[in-house]
Design brief:
19 helices; 455 residues; alpha+beta; binds protoporphyrin IX containing FE; monooxygenase; six-stranded mixed β-sheet; Cytochrome p450; three-stranded antiparallel β-sheet
Length: 455
């Protein structure tokens, strides 16, 4: 017989549900649900949603029974921004889009982007000077935006437009998660200043991308080895140019949104961890000094940077920027011994799963050696480790992100040590992704200041 009680998160308010907790401290709130059970009911305004705390249940939703779920609420609300892009399209449209995009993320293409990744990391950090205080957030955002923009649009002629698109993006991304989780529904349509700003930036970004597509199509510049050229050449059967251009715009926006903040936040967390763990930093520097030669960090060298890769893996575990994704049942489903009707919403938090002490012992200890022989992750840890999701909606940019982060971290850390200034009293921040607290960061030139005090 199926049990009929599901744990409920305490503190729900009429109409608002758990909106207050999800706005004030979403990471702490979701983590606090883990102890309540494998499936915990929370309220998004008046709508119930179920937090999945058990990796087996998560695998069923994302992989085994993926056909019984769509992406649901979080993504519907993104539609007026992302259109029908890969990130939030469903069913046959998603399959067609994934086929259209896949060649651009083929391993062969990624090896070519490695050069861009190294050059952009070099460009951003070359502007630093010993002892300078930088905003790590902004530097990492500029870096990942530069990488994605150059991989997408390699034509020099569009360089200034891609910078403008990046500016719009940095306004839009922080507004996205807030809108998606807001319980206010119809009230969001009111012309508040935030809504007007959002709409204005959406128009601006779409116009910018539309213009770039026109340049590529009509000035014969569609022979660049970049993502946009591949999209322009991709098969989109039966769609006239106008419609294809809208689809391509959707994809460019999807990739720029999904592929910039995520990697930028991960690298910010990583440099925070290095600054807090001098022994990890020292081992990383030893590896970089032993493996790297003069010149840009290359694709081939990444294969030898074993410890650097373990540091990235551990950052994606402990400080996973993906704190929430959602699914919605499209038919009645049975999960964890409960029968739940079509339309039921589910919350999955990779970050919370990665901090489960029953899966990752001592989960708040930053320990890259978890990922290296002789320890290696166990099968249940692999099951629970979902920084890039799983199944048919798994991140299409996972390899891209891996090479990007290893190359960028290696390029920066071989020359620079980053130390943290005084705490601001704040905690980790969330927008569409989880970010570390904003703390002043000082950069130290390793070639000049080998003995600078660590924070
Ligand atoms: C550290 C970096 C990254 C992380 C942690 C990350 C994480 C994720 C996750 C968890 C999903 C699945 C969401 C879900 O199932 O609901 C996803 C999807 C996606 N990601 Fe990433 N991502 C990263 C970097 C990138 C990059 C660099 C790109 C592109 C250049 C990218 C493009 C996408 C796209 C287009 C999707 C939608 C795929 C689909 O639905 O078929 N991501 N990402």
């Amino acid at each position: 017989m199926l049990p009929n009680t599901i744990a409920r998160a305490p503190g729900s308010l009429p109409l608002l549900g758990h909106a207050r907790q999800l706005t004030r401290d979403p990471l702490g709130f979701l983590e606090s649900q883990r102890a309540l059970g494998p499936l915990v009911r929370v309220n998004l305004g008046p709508t119930p949603a179920y937090v999945l705390n058990d990796p087996e249940l998560v695998q069923r939703v994302l992989v085994r029974d993926a056909g019984s779920f769509d992406k649901g609420r979080l993504f519907e609300k993104l539609r007026d921004w992302l259109g029908e892009g890969l990130f939030n399209s469903e069913g046959a449209t998603h399959r067609a889009r994934r086929r259209m995009m896949q060649p651009a993320f083929h391993h062969r293409e990624i090896t070519r982007y490695c050069r861009v990744m190294a050059e952009e990391a070099e460009r951003v950090s070359a502007g630093w000077h010993d002892g300078q205080i930088v905003s790590l957030d902004e530097e990492m955002h500029e870096l990942t935006l530069g990488i994605v923009a150059r991989a997408l649009f390699s034509a020099e002629v569009v360089r200034s437009s891609s910078r403008e698109i990046g500016e719009s993006l940095s306004v839009l991304l922080p507004l996205l998660a807030r809108r998606s989780l807001s319980p206010l529904g119809a009230l969001e349509k009111l012309p508040t200043p935030a809504k007007l700003r959002f709409d204005r930036e959406v128009v601006r970004i779409r116009a910018g991308i539309g213009e770039i597509i026109r340049v590529y199509r009509h000035d014969g510049s569609d022979d660049h080895a970049d993502l946009l050229t591949m999209l322009l050449r991709a098969d989109d059967p039966g769609a006239p140019d106008g419609l294809r251009d809208t689809h391509i715009q959707d994809e460019v926006i999807s990739v720029m949104s999904a592929g910039t903040d995520t990697s930028a936040a991960t690298m910010s967390w990583l440099f925070h961890e290095l600054a807090r763990h001098p022994e990890v930093e020292r081992k990383l520097h030893e590896e970089l000094d032993a493996v790297l030669t003069a010149g840009p960090v290359s694709y081939e060298q990444t294969g030898k940077l074993e410890y650097t890769r373990a540091v990235v893996s551990e950052t994606l575990r402990m400080d996973c920027p993906i704190w929430i994704t959602m699914r919605r049942a499209t038919s009645t489903v049975e999960l964890g011994g409960h029968r739940l009707p079509a339309g039921t919403q589910f919350i999955i938090s990779p970050r919370t799963l990665h901090r489960d002490p029953t899966v990752f012992p001592d989960p708040l200890r930053f320990d890259p050696l978890r990922w290296l022989a002789p320890r290696q992750p166990e099968p249940r840890q692999r099951l629970a480790y979902l920084p890039f999701g799983a199944g048919r909606r798994k991140c299409i940019g996972d390899s891209f992100a891996w090479y990007e982060m290893v190359i960028a971290v290696a390029t920066i850390a071989r020359r620079w040590r980053l130390s943290l200034g005084a705490r601001t009293g704040g905690r980790g921040r969330t927008s569409a992704v989880a970010k570390p607290e904003a703390r002043p960061v000082t950069v130290h030139d390793r070639t000049k200041s080998a003995t600078t005090a660590k924070s």
